Amino acid sequence: MDLYAENVLDHYRHPRNQGTLKDATVSHAEKNWSCGDEITMHLRIEDGVIRTVRWEGTGCAISQAAMSLLSEKLEGVTLKKAAELQQKDIFRLLGVPISPRRLQCALIGLHTLKNALRKERGEPPHGWMDTAETDSMDGATFGT
Amino acid sequence: MKLDVEQVRSMFPALQSKGDTTPPVYLDSAAQSLIVQASLNAVVQFETSRANVHRGMYPLAEQATGAYENARRTVQPFLHAAHPQEIVFTKNGTEGTNLVAQSWGRANLQADDAVVLSILEHHSNVVPWLQLKREKGIRLEWIDCDKQGNLGQEQYRQALQKKNVKLVTLTGQSNVLGVRPPLKKMIQLAHEAGAITAVDAAQLVVHYPIDVQNLDCDFLTFSGHKIYGPTGIGVLYGKRAHLETMPPFLGGGSMIQWVEREDFTTTDIPTKFEAGTPPTAQAVGLAAALQWLTQYRWEDIERHEQRLFRHAQDILSAIKGVQILSPATASGCLSFTLDGIHPHDVAEILSQRGVCMRAGHHCAQPLHDHLGIPGSVRLSIGIYNTEAEIDCVAPALKHAIHLFSKS
Hints:
The complex is a heterodimer of chains A (144) and B (407).
Chain A: H1 6-13, E1 26-32, E2 37-46, E3 49-58, H2 61-74, H3 79-83, H4 87-94, H5 103-120
Antiparallel strand pairs in A: 1-2, 2-3
Chain B: H1 5-10, E1 25-26, H2 37-48, H3 59-79, E2 87-90, H4 93-108, E3 114-118, H5 127-136, E4 139-143, H6 153-161, E5 165-171, H7 183-192, E6 196-200, H8 212-215, E7 219-223, E8 234-238, H9 240-245, E9 256-259, E10 264-266, H10 280-293, H11 298-317, E11 322-324, E12 333-338, H12 343-352, E13 355-356, E14 358-360, H13 365-371, E15 376-380, H14 387-391, H15 393-405
Parallel strand pairs in B: 1-13, 3-4, 3-5, 5-6, 6-7
Antiparallel strand pairs in B: 2-8, 7-8, 9-10, 11-12, 12-15, 14-15
Helix pairs in contact in B: 2-10, 3-10, 4-5, 12-15
């Protein structure tokens, strides 16, 4: 299946939940240094549940589409459930094969979310190694 | 030897078809060139009957030392250095720059001394100086470029007039724009202002003959893996007078004369800067690559590569939406952006068609900031490339435009 599937390109061209959030309870930004993808995520959290998600970003189609797809899934999700999200969930959302070289593109949204949630808990941010499970990729591409 | 591109291609293992797999269209030689068979053979031959250099009292060890020192004596005339002792083997060009910063720089630069550098520099010629800025409070004086990549010569003259300018460090050829600063003139001006000079020749060295005595640069660095040789080897050229007075860089075996409990003395150059077991097979492999390359005339290499560059320019400028960043006078590489499509996506779509090209900031973030773009796509040329390979780029770019233009 092609990386630039219609679903991916649609989310890239028409990103969902993009923008700022005045009453955000936590905001966090991450950058993918190798290619310059940037995501800033704003969350409004009430009673342990993500009520509103807005995000701003620049970058390649994969990074922006993955963030857009993720944002659709987050509203109404408990913090516990959100913290449990893994890279395989992002792959499932994208539905296209992600090669190792595009791993960080695909996961920058998840990485931003994880560190936003850590910030909300008063914890320091973690590095990429804790978000991306590169050891399970073995240089192969992931199907759906 | 006459430069016959098909014959050249036959000497690169990576360009041979294996069964049903066709070789890649490799247009990323500015990041790393392919390795030539002669270099690979030399590496394998050395490792097959290897021994450590400068140590063992047996013939095999003697041969190893001979092979390593012969490699040095191959690099020396390649750069037109006056003495073999002026050739220091490093792990890569980056290590060479770091050696200059950490050895010469730490010994000779104080707070408020200035290093002049250009906006074209690769991170490897930026960060070592930023490290000294952090550590010692030195100043960096940046020389900007115009849209064509020309460094501001008036700005340069003014920078040289500022106080305590100790070093000017410049790339010989930009790894993004492919422009070549007027090195000889700028080096002369630096010397007149009382500064010494360093040249990052990582890109230049494979496209243009270098004569360090004619340039009169004080230091020059390059990497083996960008000139058809193996990874893990680089060269630092330094004028003998500098190398002799500089403190050592890394400490360990080989670089010492005598070690006691409380102190040590260093050995002579260049070994003073080659602590530990050196990348011996890689040095031998680099020498083989240089011998292979120099069997061709530089005029022929330049003519071939200029033809490829112009062809790339023609192909790209004919595609609507392509913004070429490199000027017509550039060499070796050509960077561009594609309206509305992230460079990473462009490179991905090229790769789906077997075309290997780099996208991103190419380790030159200050330059991309200066140009006001997050990244670019780079087509870079090696001696083995053909016009037919460059032709493969156009349909891939058109496909990318088509894919991303749908609303």
